[in-house]
Amino acid sequence: MSHEHVSYLELLARGAATEAYDRPVLLARATGAGPEELAALEEARALALSVRADLEGRRRREAELSALFETAHDLAGLRDLDAVLRAIVQRARSLLGTEVAYLSLNDPDAGDTYMRVTEGSVSARFQQVRLGMGEGLGGLVAQTARPYVTADYFGDARFQHTRTIDTAVRDEGLVAILGVPLSLGSQVIGVLFAADRRSRVFEREQVSLLCSFAAHAAVAIDTANLLAETRAALAGLERANGIIREHSAVIERASEVHDRLSELVLHGGGVHDVADAVSEVIGGTVEFTEADAGSARRADGHVVREDDDWVAAVSVGGETLGALVLRGRPELDPVDQRTLERAALVTSLLLLARRSAGEAEQRVRGELLDDLLDAPDRDRRLLRERAARLRADSDAPHVVLAARVDRADGATEADAGRREGADRRRLGAAASHLAATRRGLASVRDGGTVLLLPLGPGETAAELARQTARHLGGTLREPVTVGASAPVPEHLDHADRVSVAYAEARRCLETLRLLHRSGEGAAAEDLGFLGLLLADSRDIGGFVDRTIGQVVAYDHRRGTDLVRTLDAYFASGMSPARTKDDLHVHVNTVAQRLERVGRLLGADWQSPARALEIQLALRLHALSTAAPGA
Fold it and tell me: 130-132 and 480-484: which strand pairing?
């Protein structure tokens, strides 16, 4: 084998660039090789380049076939339609080597088209754009059911340009776009796109490859729709079977509910345990409520019909405490009526037995907490002795929590007043029980309830607030909003800190209600920049770290400029095209930096609420770094 063939084989073996194949010819000319040797080298070069092109084509086709196989595998185990479509768009972007890929679907009800999946996009406007039917390059693809490609979007007059579409495309910085239809039979349901922020020509093989991915995406959507229809049909069959089983087991249910109620009483079950047990046996939904006590009082110990519900009074010694209300059963046979009445009797006995114990427990714990709030100068030794008798935790850091029941119904003013009083009593009892189990304290105060609970190992005030809201809301079956203070160390030795923490917890509670976040639990650290105003500590550094700390740390580690890029991006109205002018960099550089920011802060970092907090954190960070000695 000649020397020149060996050289070209070595180049092929190591996958050298195309330019490297010119070197043997140039070297031969420089050393004075004859015409025959040069001609042989040229022939060997042409053959080697042909082999290289063939190898590159084979590798590319192998990668494409592998991606299509993986997509088919995803469809075979379809569980999450969004995940499958996202994988298809990601693979299309990778194999075509484009900067952006996206998929839009038609919305027949709204009469337009919306973005379903985007990959590589950094413009919030582009990601949220909705297009009218027939508009833009996508509209042309949908109308003709054929692929279309443009190397210069804004200079192409084949399709209808609109201000909305052109503004979104310009904001993303796109120039070359390829669109192929998503078709189910003869119906076009959407379009799959691949796009670049520079002019380029899409080859025929690339158009064919994107069409293959579009076919997979259409199959995924059709499969998901069929699965949804199948699930709906199965649910209908299950409901029908439930009705048949109900009619064939009336007497068996009566016996079962007797056993269940007896077991609940013996094992210390509660009112809502009784309601849940009856719900399972009778069918429908049984709830204990104080709101229907007036209606239930007229029932005279028997189940009565109230509109579409069945109501059984819960009373003790002539005092009506509430009612068991059965919903979801248009008709009720005599056996089930007696079952509901028996459950109401058991409920009244449970309430009577626990009222006495609960009131005593609640009173003692409430008195200690009231003293901590109202008389912080009490003797520390006596406070510790009282806490020890209640088995309350005296050493761990504690959190003060303010809780209120938040109803959202249209009751009259008189009914609202009665409900508010009943809510306070029920919330006080539930909070006292929670405090006893958590080795804390609770008291009824200021139209709601205040709790003083110890923090567990590794637990934060925010986590404790959310747990308390879920627990109290689940117990009362009503939304309970909870605001928490920062942790209070040595609360028995420094009782004055408890009243300060209670004021902070109430501010947090009122802020949650103003933000229409009723039924949630939170501490100041959960409320972003509002937390800076609510907390006594004014933890500006903590707010900045929670909001953009990962971006700042990334800049420190890598020597990058993501913080300055974010500043310029928001200052330019979130436009990558204008941002690159402010920073004097290429738009691709801006896109890459913003894509990195998205991976650090999460996909929703450009949403209005997140964007507001990020901009405030950027200002505070700039002030802190510019301060003397920073």
Answer: unpaired
